[in-house]
Request: fold
Amino acid sequence: MSDISKEQILDVIEKAKVVNNIHELDASVLFSEQDIDSLDVSGMLLSIEEAFGVEIPDEDIDGLLTINDILGYVNNKIK
Reply:
């Protein structure tokens, strides 16, 4: 499988309806600094698991604090 792009991650987040405007998100800024709470992050990660067929164990969630973190994580999981 080829690498997942940032746009694909953002598309999944947008479809999960976790944020009001996906275009205002900064991929390198912490979710907490963008007014995205832990419940929203959980929903986002569940959608990402479903969309890309990866499993994100609970112990890995604390390390996924930005879109870039998720992007790198998913790409490492699908290889």
In short: The mean pLDDT is 92.
